[in-house]
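Any chance you could type out a protein's amino acid sequence plus the matching backbone structure tokens because I've never seen that pairing?

——
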Amino acid sequence: MESRSLVVVSAGLGQPSSTRLLADRLASAAADALRDRGVEVAVEVVELRDLARDLADHLVAHATSPALRAALDAVAGADGVVAVTPVFAASYSGLFKSFVDVLDRDALTGVPVVVGATAGTQRHSLVLEHAMRPLFAHLRALVLPTAVFAAPEDWGGGTGGSTDALGGRVDRAAGELAAAVAARPARRPHDPFEDAPSFADLLSGR
């Protein structure tokens, strides 16, 4: 069976977090859709809340902690990415942008990405189009057509209304991600030493 990796980047600050809840729903639906296509999938979560101090240290002192390096490497080796942020000041959060700022500029080139956002009101839903989509387009990612926004009313109990609408958006976005990931060959994790000459070549003078 083929295998792919999905990385979930969640910038939620609370515990529990609606941002993380949306990210998990997208990742779970995408993983199910990939398995339906005969593709095994490993899902890894990058919780930015746990990396806040590491990101600050990196930006100020250029110090990269092992935890931050592992997160950056996970994104750089992902076959698909789910990226979800809370809305702050009508845009993505500063924590989310800080992580994007320290990514390698080529880390997401051509990688399928589903973007999502959460906020306290539906009035912020256009953040996905005026902020999130251009950000990942700048990184040359393959930003998928369906972006998913969730406000408090989307998490209501019962059936019908916005709850069903959110489920439909999640399923559609997850299907797009699964199709894009399955259509691409698996990414090989980048080895920074792959271009280094061998000791045999050095000793032979080549």
